[in-house]
């Protein structure tokens, strides 16, 4: 049975078919804001007339983040964190979007010193040597498989986080598909917090 939506929310990737979508149901363009979760969340809640629900969710999420931050810092103190994405071709270090936004802004955990200035996507390509210079105490690794340029290198095993067993793995898909949306964001934070606490025992 064909879907009969009352409203369609269309992102930038649907721009070319906007006219087609608008013939199916009223269609609202969601502003492009890859690294602006809260702005996009507020926009969508306004469109759906769910502002109160958004405020309640945000208050609950921020309260949980504060509690989780205290639990983590009680174990890790001033130890630093870095968020890396590794593919077969490159290494990117993130400091602004997705999981990085969660770690540095929501949980307010210490950044590894010397993080590069991010590009519009919230990250920056780096070399193996650049990563070894950062050498964080904790490393959140986004990789869809172990067949990547980072884990196949000799530098990988020399990193403090690897030697201490403080590597927290998730897929790139989890970051892009979950960390930018309310339900996924909460679920990912729960997973990361438990992984970090377990790794810091």
Automatic annotation (TrEMBL):
Keyword Chaperone in record: no
InterPro entries referenced in this protein's UniProt entry, alphabetically: ABC_transptr_periplasmic_BD (IPR002491), Bact_iron-sidero_bind (IPR051313)
GO biological process, one term: iron coordination entity transport
Keyword Iron appears in the UniProt entry: no
Record's subcellular location: Cell envelope
SUPFAM superfamilies named in the record: Helical backbone' metal receptor (SSF53807)
Entries under Pfam families matching the protein: Peripla_BP_2
Keyword tags: Signal, Transport
Domain Fe/B12 periplasmic-binding: start-end pairs: 1-200
GO CC, alphabetical: outer membrane-bounded periplasmic space
Family as reported in the entry's similarity comment: Belongs to the bacterial solute-binding protein 8 family.
Protein's name in the database: Fe/B12 periplasmic-binding domain-containing protein
Protein source organism: Paenibacillus lutimineralis
């Amino acid at each position: 049975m064909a879907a009969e939506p009352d409203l369609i929310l269309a992102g930038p990737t649907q721009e070319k078919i906007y006219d087609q979508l608008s013939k199916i149901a009223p269609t609202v363009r969601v502003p492009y804001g890859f690294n602006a979760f809260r702005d996009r969340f507020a926009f969508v809640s306004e469109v759906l007339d769910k502002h109160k629900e958004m405020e309640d969710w945000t208050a609950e999420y921020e309260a949980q983040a504060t509690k989780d931050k205290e639990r983590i810092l009680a174990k890790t103190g001033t130890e630093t964190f870095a968020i890396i994405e590794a593919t077969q071709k490159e290494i990117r270090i993130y400091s602004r979007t997705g999981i990085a936004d969660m770690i540095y802004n929501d949980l307010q955990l210490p950044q590894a010193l010397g993080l590069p200035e991010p590009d519009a996507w919230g990250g920056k390509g780096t070399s193996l040597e650049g990563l070894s210079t950062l050498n964080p105490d904790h490393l959140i690794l986004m990789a869809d498989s172990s067949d990547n340029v980072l884990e196949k290198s000799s530098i990988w095993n020399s990193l403090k986080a690897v030697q201490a067993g403080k590597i927290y793995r998730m897929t790139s898909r989890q970051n892009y598909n979950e960390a930018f949306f309310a339900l996924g964001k909460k679920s990912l934070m729960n997973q990361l917090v438990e992984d970090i606490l377990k790794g810091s025992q």
